[in-house]
Amino acid sequence: MVRCYVALGANLGEPIRIVQAAIDALKSIEGAQFVVASSLYRTAPVGLVHQPDFINAVVALDLDIAVLPAPTWLQQLFAIEARFGRQRSVKNAPRTLDLDLLLYGDLASDAPACTLPHPRLHERAFVLAPLHEIAPDLMIPGRGAVTALLAACADQQVERLQ
Question: Which residues of 128-159 are buried (b: 16+ CB within 10 A; e: fewer)?
Fold first, then answer.
C-alpha cells in the first residue's frame, strides 16, 4: 500500500455538491482505501481571475500499488473528472471538477504525463491549507514541511467552510 493525496477543486455548477460527490467517487475505486478528507475551502481563482471562486479539498487514500500504480491512478482521476463534465480546453479555466494527484508515496517523477510531487503544490495555499489540515507533519519530497510551505503562502486568502 502507498499513501497518496489528491486535491479536488470546482467552481462551476454546484461546486460544494460536486466536490462532495467526487470524494464519494474516490471512495468507490477498487484498490483504493479512503483514509480522510479535509474540510472544504473557498479560494479565489489563480491565473484566469475573472471567474467564480473555487471550492477545494484534499483527500488521503491508501492504494494497492499492484492494482493502482501511479499512471493507472492518474487515469482513474481523469475518468472521474470526465464523469463530472470536465473539459481540458483552456489552462486555469473554470471547471466542473479538477482532481490533481499531489503525492503518490515518496515517488518522484519528471514524466510529463505524471509529474510527482505535483509541480505547483508547494506554491498554492488552496492545496496546502487542506493538506495541512489532514497531514500537518507531512514532508513534501524536495520541498520541505507542509507547515513551512503553507506559511510561505500566507498572502493567499483561503477560507475554511463550516
Answer: bbbbbbbbeebebeeeeebeebbeebeebebe
For the chain, which domains are there? 2-160 (3.30.70.560)
What span, in angstroms and rounded, lies between the C-alpha atoms of 56 and 78?
17
Beta-bridge mates of residue 104: 4
Please report which helix (H) or strand (E) contains residue 21, including its range: helix 15-27
Tracing cell 473528472 back to the chain, one arrives at 81
Calpha distance 107→125 (Å, rounded): 22
pLDDT in tens, 68-100: 999 999 999 999 999 988 666 656 557 789 999
Give the catalytic positions in this structure: 86, 95, 98, 100
Rounded Cα distance between 26 and 107, Å, is 20
Q: Which residues contact 124 (CB under 8 A, 6 or more apart)?
A: 46, 153, 156
Among the listed residues 25, 104, 106, 28, the one whose alpha carbon sits nearest the alpha carbon of residue 72: 104
Q: At what angle do helices 15-27 and 70-83 cross, to 10 degrees?
A: 140
Q: Is the entire prediction scored with pTM above 0.90?
A: yes
